[in-house]
Each structure stands twice: as structure tokens, then as C-alpha cells.
Amino acid sequence: MNDYREPVTGRTGLLSPDSIGILYHASLECEDPVARLVTLAAIVPWDAISVAGTPIENLDRGAGTLRVVSKVGVPNPIALGFEAASALDLVIGRRRTGCVLVDAGGFMMKDDRDTYDYIRELLGFVDGRTLDLDWSFRLIRESVFADMVDHGVSLHVAQAQAGLGFGETDDLREQRAAADWWSYRMGIVPPPAFALVDALRRNGTWSPRGDGISPERGGGTR
């Protein structure tokens, strides 16, 4: 039986960081919250549905971590890079309870073929042109993991970032560095040092849309 999260054409190659970056930015521009599953998949290379279904209370903004429970019930802390933390703030918005990501009706995202087909349809056009890119959530995850390992990220750090680790770890600083490195690989220019200091001073977050710093933590972009 085919996995609806596999590439529809059976492609076996991996996605390049640039291709994943295109999907990431396209998902940010899409108004439908369902597309934010791609936002999460591209910047936090876990199983997207697991991240989306994680309780908001599991996000520790002070420590910069998100504790995701795997499908076998093991809690795994993920260290968030700057862009990943900003993307989560965008996805969560002003909500304080419930799941990290909900649909337009406020319900948990469904893990089924209809959801994935709908997202592919939503992201089928970018800037008025057809997005000729064969992708799946599984392929995004595998591509991020492979790119990290191929470029010298420690195996245990890449496994932790991709949700392939074994519960509690003590490598959060290394994870965060790897997460920031991955966002740079996608073509996201890191914010200037002075902007980071200003964001910290204002207790805000950098907008993943690139339009400034949101004035309050967890408030999304303006």
C-alpha cells in the first residue's frame, strides 16, 4: 500500500536546501493555516503531524526548546534555532492552550491523504507560476537529515533534530547551532547582531516573513 506521504511520482532523489526553502516561503505566504504544516516540516525536521499536535505548553521559550512526544510515547526535547522559534511563534499566534497548529476551525490537523493532497494543491502555484517540485513530508524530513549529516553535523545531533534520537539529550546547544545552520542552508539570511540584541531587549521575536521584529513574545508577526 502506497504511503500518501511519499513522493507521488516515486522519485528517489532528495530535495535540495533551495527547494525546501521555496516550499518554506510558499507556505508562509499561503493564508490557509493547513499550509503551515510545510512551514513546520521545513524548519523543524520532525514528523510534521507530531509537531503540529504537540501541546503549546511543551514550548519553553526561555530555554528555546519544544518537547515533542514521539509516536511510541517518548518525550524528545528539540532545540530550536532562531528561525524555527520565530516560525513557531507565527504558527501559534496568541493562543496559550491547545496544539501548536490547528486548522481554520480550531481543530487538530488530520493525518490523512486529503490533508496532504490539499496542501500540495495550495502550494502548487508560487508567485503566479506552477511550482514544478515533487515533494512529500517524508522526503523533506529525509532531505534535511541527509544534508545535515553530509555536511558534518554530528549524527546524534542530526538524529535529535529529525526526531530519530532516544529521548532526553544533553546536546541542546549543538542542536540549536545545527538548526540555525539549516535555516541558512535554506537561504534564510541570519539577522544582524544588533537586531538580535534589540529583539531580546524588547522581549520580541524576529519575523519569519522578514518584515521586522514582533513586539511581544508569542504574538506572531505584525
Question: What this model shows, in words?
Answer:
The protein is mainly alpha-helical and 222 residues long. 41% of the residues lie in helices and 9% in strands. The chain has helices at residues 17-29, 36-43, 48-52, 82-92, 113-122, 137-150, 155-161, 172-185, 193-201, and strands spanning 59-60, 65-69, 75-79, 125-126, 129-130, 205-206, 213-214. The strands form three sheets. The protein has a three-stranded antiparallel beta sheet. A hairpin with a 6-residue loop joins β6 and β7 (213-214). α2 packs antiparallel against α4, α6 packs antiparallel against α7 and α7 (155-161) crosses α8 (172-185). The radius of gyration is 16 Å and the shape is globular.
CATH superfamily: Intergrase catalytic core
Can you give the mean pLDDT? 79
Q: What count of helical segments does DSSP give?
A: 9
CATH class: Mainly Alpha
Gap from first CA to last CA = 44 Å
Report the count of strand segments: 7
CATH topology: the name is hpI Integrase, Chain A
Helix/strand structural class: mainly alpha
Rounded to an integer in angstroms, the radius of gyration calculated over CA atoms is 16 Å
How many domains would you count in the coordinates?
A: 1
Which CATH architecture is right?
Answer: Orthogonal Bundle
Q: How much of the polypeptide forms β-strand, as a percent range?
A: 5-15%
Low-confidence stretches: 1-11, 203-222
In short:
With 222 residues, the chain is mainly α. It has helices at residues 17-29, 36-43, 48-52, 82-92, 113-122, 137-150, 155-161, 172-185, 193-201, and strands at 59-60, 65-69, 75-79, 125-126, 129-130, 205-206, 213-214. It starts with 16 loop residues before the first helix and ends in an 8-residue tail after the last strand.
